[in-house]
Amino acid sequence: MATTASKKILIVEDEKDILDLVNLYLQKEGYRTCTAMTGLEGLTLAKSEHPDLIVLDLMLAEMDGLEVCRRVRADPQTAVLPIIMLTAKAEESDTIVGLEVGADDYVTKPFSPKALVARVKALLRRVERQQGESPRYTYGPLVLDVARHEVTDKGREVPLTAKEFGLLEHLLQHPGRVMTRDVLLNAVWGYDYFGTTRTVDVHVRRLKQKLPCLDDAILSVKSLGYKLKERDG
Ligand code: CA
């Protein structure tokens, strides 16, 4: 959990000078950083490094910032990650597209590093406020935080895949109710998912392996589906 540690910023920029400058200023402000020089590398780090925010250059060779932004938003694991886009003044129309595909804010080049750091701080504050209001589900020692896309068991973070997370979220929303495999499949995988209800069984099993406290709590309801036992708290 990154509650006590400083926030981590991912910087994606293919111009080395700018990358180094932004990196330096963010580190000076006490942020942890990770850096990527291509869009693809940025996408990989967005998942593996669990950053709290991305500073994303629009103009990248091969996969540009817009595409990176789209993909970050499309992946449930990174969908809510705050993004500040770096754009050039001449690309005003791209800036608008950037906001449309899901960037939270943008800074036009050339920019002062101080101004960028101020925007980073402001956006992180905004997100923290929103997270304070976001739904959290608790179940005994389990806490599922929707905005953070995080599940903790007795305060220890348990990494779940997007589908495992979705499945757990759905069960926590409906304790005491029998959820058929079809309902779960539609809710978590979507109506157009081409698969069998066996998929649900496999994911329930994995969920129980990762979160042993659910072993007795998720009941299999013969030939129907699953039910999360009701409990106080
Ligand atoms: Ca660039």
Description:
The chain is an alpha/beta fold and 233 residues long. The chain has two domains: 126 residues, Rossmann fold; 96 residues, Orthogonal Bundle (Arc Repressor Mutant, subunit A), CATH 1.10.10.10. It is 42% helix and 22% strand. The strands form three sheets. Strands 2-1-3-4-5 form a five-stranded parallel sheet, sandwiched between helices. Strands 6-7-8-9 form a four-stranded antiparallel sheet, covered by helices on one side. Strand 4, helix 4 and strand 5 form a beta-alpha-beta unit. Helix 1 packs across helix 5, helix 2 runs parallel beside helix 3 and helix 6 crosses helix 7. The protein is elongated and about 65 Å long. It starts with 7 loop residues before the first strand and ends in a 5-residue tail after the last strand. The mean pLDDT is 88.
